[in-house]
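Researcher: I'm preparing a figure for a lab meeting and need a structural model of a single chain. I don't have an experimental structure, so a prediction will have to do for now. The sequence is pasted below. Please return the structure as tokens so I can convert it later.
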Amino acid sequence: MRVSFDQVDSRAIGTALSPQETQRYSRHLIMPEVGIEGQKRLKAASILLIGAGGLGSPLGLYLAAAGVGRIGLVDFDAVDFSNLQRQVLHGTADVGRPKLHSALDRLRAINPEVIYEGYETRLSSANAMDICKSYDLVIDGTDNFPTRYLVNDVCVLLKKPNVYGSIFRFDGQASVFHPPHGPCYRCLYPEPPPPGEVPSCAEGGVLGILPGVIGVIQATEAVKLILGKGEPLIGRLMHYDALQMKFREFKVRRNPKCAICGDSPTINRLIDYEQFCGIRGTPPQTRGGKEVTVEELKRRIDTGSPPLILDVRNPPEIAICRLAGSVVIPLPELPQRLHELDPAREIVVHCKSGMRSARAVAFMCEQGFANVSNLVGGILDWAAKIDPKMPTY
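Model: Understood. Here is the structure written out token by token.
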């Protein structure tokens, strides 16, 4: 299936390769599937990358090296030590710097022939159309549902391909969403999962190499689309299991009843995606329970009358750091082990940052625990405000 890029075609006609570019891309030029004309198409093309993290790193590196003429990069975050295990755009010296600045410096060092455009902002319904409209295709390197739905919808409305990828632990997915040639993300996932039901990489972890595999697949799909060669992942969802070293493919069909790309769409403009995904304001899972700050918990411990501290994180997290004297019951085991806790006792529940513990508090309240509280900010807040020497992750 060849996806038409009329503007790329017209721009490529007036594009020339310099002697230095000819040498740089020589291994492309001798391939009949690319050649001089294909390399001109790459130089004439523009790609927008959403995110400069795990997926954005291999995407940026290889698309810049491949000679995509104009690359836009959207990111608002700063480099953290925990990013370095997988986000290879950034180095140790970049910790604390804006990811956008670090990424652009690295990409310019790889290929100064490319035009780079940076957007140090959170992609939102207010700015997405303006940012995306001047690019030929968009690549989704994000890790949250509101932005995934936002990227999908803006691409459908602008009629641009959306090269999708996601990662979690040892598993990755990739596809190309491009109605009317195939389905969109909403055809595959009409509704987002309930807030907190799907752990983030920060909660569940991710193999550092995994985004390299999925990001390179996304970059490959983008280059194929621009060149008009091969069979893109339109209508196909590729699943990668790193533990078993297996690739599987699933057919994905366009849903005629899809809310945005169906026969009678009900979405014709960008919406509030945080509200759509149910994560705006007070999360529903915190209602019914109380909250306590790390400072309040520390005062209670120092006075010698501490509550029972319940840690609902998973065993690998406990091995990194733990509050002294805490009782450990991982959240998935809580329904079966609830009898181990005294409903009459004051209990403070914590996890890494407060999301899983909020769900635990809501469940315990439903089961008749009357004096249970969620530790705001979790053990990360404890390390930041109470015990700076505590290891974090």
